[in-house]
UniProtKB/TrEMBL annotation:
InterPro entries cross-referenced by the UniProt entry: AAA+_ATPase, ABC_transporter-like_ATP-bd, P-loop_NTPase
Gene Ontology MF terms in the entry: ATP binding; ATP hydrolysis activity
PANTHER family: ABC TRANSPORTER, ATP-BINDING PROTEIN
Keyword presence, Nucleotide-binding: yes
Origin species: Chitinophaga caeni
Protein name: ABC transporter ATP-binding protein
Location of the ABC transporter domain: 6-237
Family recorded in the similarity comment: Belongs to the ABC transporter superfamily.
Length: 317
């Protein structure tokens, strides 16, 4: 069921003559993790700033939690937690002291602030590092503390701008699964801006691809892949022990099968593009023909291919 919590309508922003965001309409549902993808300068940060009421749209509206962000920026900031790519802390204070400070600034009562700060640090996996100086935290730990900084305000929406910048691969994995867990457990809506396709692919329910201020396309991976690759959405790659004998005859027979669209034979391998996933039937067919199969691989179109395709076709237009 759709329950939009972020609604952007015809959102447009000019900086002088530069159109940073071009007529953007988008809605994100409660509890969804939405990935905002695009190269440098695509307009992601400008869009986020307009959602937070920190930049004024030239045209259109940004509504978050039912609040018009331009007209009521303070009310929006109470509902939305924003984590920039790099969060600053007081290096000579402990992590807990930093978080308590943020808590107080956000109006948490004195008798509650320590408990809330400790609970939040536990939540982001820093329960055993409470008393370490923030200056001695690693980049990955700082990002977790940045997330705690956002979460202690109990927001309905969390906006993360390149949250994994500078974290090592295992730290990235942990950070992303933490975000996914929090979103699922607490119904938190997350907007994640990034140009790291693999990361976005790992945790986002839906993605929007931005290029030059325009949202080229949005949807979940399956929909995007189907729209782009259409009838060739399912590709099975089969490798045989030796070069395929009577390849022409075999190809003819395969083409008669319902659902097979395209066949590419190269040496001892064959790539079959199909309307549905025909892998089991194809394997049965080859086994019946007595062909020794050494490998079967179902090709999945990832965000890399999807992004590349949209990007290429946008440049050509
Ligand atoms: N304050 C500003 N004044 C003038 N132009 C700006 C300003 N901020 C952004 N722009 C321009 O607007 C366009 C979009 O920039 P924006 O920072 O929103 O993109 P982005 O997708 O967030 O990029 P990145 O991934 O590099 O952060 C760019 O052409 C940029 O140069």
């Amino acid at each position: 069921m759709n329950n939009p919590i972020i609604e952007l309508e015809g959102l447009t922003k000019y900086y002088g003559s530069v159109k940073a965001v071009d007529n953007l309409s988008l809605s994100v549902n409660k509890g969804e993790i939405f990935g905002l993808l695009g190269p440098n300068g695509a307009g992601k940060t400008t869009t986020i700033l307009m959602m937070l009421g920190l930049a004024e749209p030239s045209k259109g509206t940004a509504t978050v939690c039912g609040i018009n962000a331009t007209k009521n920026p303070i009310a929006v900031k109470r509902k939305v937690g924003y984590m920039p790519d790099s969060v600053g802390f007081y290096d000579n204070l402990t992590a807990l002291e930093n978080l308590e400070y943020i808590g107080r600034l956000n109006g948490i009562a004195e008798n509650e602030v320590e408990i809330r700060a400790k609970e939040t640090m536990e939540l982001v996996g820093l329960g055993s590092e409470l008393h370490k100086k923030a200056g001695a935290y690693s980049r990955g730990m700082k990002q977790r503390l940045g997330l705690a900084d956002v979460l202690i305000r109990q927001p309905d929406v969390v906006i993360l701008d390149e949250p994994t910048l500078g974290i090592d691969p295992s730290g990235i994995k942990e950070f992303l699964s933490l975000i996914r867990k929090l979103s699922r457990q607490q119904g938190l809506t997350v907007l994640l801006s990034s140009h790291h396709l693999h990361q976005v692919q790992q945790i986002c329910d839906r993605v929007g691809i931005f290029v030059e201020g325009k949202l080229l396309v949005e949807g979940n991976l399956e929909t995007l892949s189907f729209n782009l690759f259409g009838k060739d959405s399912y590709t099975t790659l089969v490798t045989f022990q030796d070069a395929i004998p009577d390849a022409g005859l075999l190809e003819k027979e395969l083409r008669m099968m319902n659902g097979v669209n395209n066949i590419l034979i190269e040496g001892n391998s064959m790539e079959l593009s199909c309307e549905v996933d025909m892998t089991p039937g194809l394997v049965r067919f080859f086994v019946q023909k007595g062909l020794p199969i050494t490998g079967v691989h179902k090709k999945e179109y990832g965000l890399d291919e999807i992004y590349q395709r949209y990007f290429e076709s946008n440049i050509k237009n």
